[in-house]
Write the structure tokens for this entry.
Amino acid sequence: MIEEHPSELRADIARYFPGRSLNEFHRNEIGNGSMSWLELWEFFLALPADSMTVSAMSGDHARRRWTEADYMLANALNLQQYTIQVLWAAHLKGKPPEITPWKLPDLRTWEQIEADEDAERQRAAFFAATRPGAPDPEYARKLTAARDEHLRLIAEHHPD
């Protein structure tokens, strides 16, 4: 926890335990500090779910610290926006304004984000190579054959 998220832990201790600092723990290792391992652990356990440390440990890389109440409010807002669109279309007989739903935080790990971006790049390369008028039709044929083989293997192992 200390090695992975030191800045978040430092900020949380200062925020939730006024007058205390993570520096007290570091001075303790030298021998003249006033915060023990046990006290640091108790501070960590007392952190609320929306603290920076808990959020970072749960994968909230955008530092959007959401509690259950925040999620419920976002869902209520999205529902209200949807209701407005339906009522607008039903009673005002026109096209409702475009309302974008409230965006929830991205809780994927950095590895998941990189894997998703890599998969998206591969999909884009496949579609660019297989579109009509692609510069190398032989490459497109090879990609199509590899894709068909992949789908065949998936169908063999996962019959529906």
Notes: The helical segments are 6-16, 22-30, 37-46, 52-57, 68-91, 110-130, 137-157.
